[in-house]
Amino acid sequence: MLRTCILLASALALPAAAAIAEPSGLAYSLRTLPTEEPAFALSANGVQVYQCQQVPGGASYAWFLVAPDATLYDGAASVARMASPNHWESLYDLSSVSGVPLRMQAAGADNLPWELMHAVPIGDSGMFAGVSSIQRVNTAGGAPPRGACDDTHVGDEARVAFTADYYFYKPRAAG
Predict the structure, then answer these.
(1) Which of 21, 39, 50, 75 has the most CB atoms within 10 Å of its CB?
(2) What is the average pLDDT score of the chain?
(3) What is the DSSP letter of 52?
(4) How far is CA 163 from CA 58, 135, 153, 155, in A?
(5) What residues does 44 pair with on adjacent strands?
(6) What's the pLDDT score for residue 8?
(7) Euclidean distance between CA atoms 158 and 161, whole angstroms
(8) pLDDT, tens digit, 9 for 90 and up, residues 104-154
């Protein structure tokens, strides 16, 4: 009985399996391989945490990304978290995936760029198992702050709100 409940809860936590269309407005360089297809898409809502630091080897200062703090949603259901740069963890089945940045597309001065990443899933089962590529698109906010970052602000932290859509691709089914 307990095993049935766990399996049912895990199945309910997975993103909907309906056919997913690729995002529109992508630069050619952000398209995935023809051998991949979108398996599911999740919407992120959270913040990018930045810290004012001295640029290594220089006398200048800049905002550096410390970590995201975001929840990913499938519709209204929260299904995953981002607490490390380019790393997603399921809230239900303990699967996770990391993304290795490949290419970016500008999305406006205050927005995170759109991005294509090579996926490195951890584990052979769960929501993120088999993911081969990830796209970040439709970003709003999240860019480093424009505010003062100098020797009087070293160590200051800024939390910049953002939203984005993440498309998770898997190898296209043979057919």
Answers:
(1) 50
(2) 89
(3) E
(4) 33, 14, 27, 25
(5) 72, 164
(6) 40
(7) 10
(8) 999 998 999 999 999 999 989 999 999 999 999 999 999 999 888 999 999
What's the 3-state SS for 107-159? CCCCECCEEEEEEEEECCCCCCCCCCEEEEEEEEEECCCCCCCCCCCCCCEEE
Task: Answer whether residue 99 shows pLDDT above 70.
Answer: yes
Tokens, residue 29: 């360089």
Residue written as token pair 């584990």: 123
**Confidence grade of residue 6 (pLDDT, cut at 50, 70, 90):** very low
> In sequence order, what are the residues at sequence separation of 6 or more whose Cβ sits closer than 8 angstroms to the Cβ of residue 165?
23, 41, 42, 43, 44, 136, 137, 138
Which of 71, 63, 64 lies closest to 47, judged by CA? 71
**Residue 158 predicted with pLDDT over 70:** yes
* Residue 156 CB partners (closer than 8 Å, separation 6+): 51, 52, 149
Residues 78, 60 contacting (CB under 8 angstroms): no
Give residue-wise pLDDT tens across range 42-80.
999 999 999 999 998 878 999 999 999 999 999 999 999
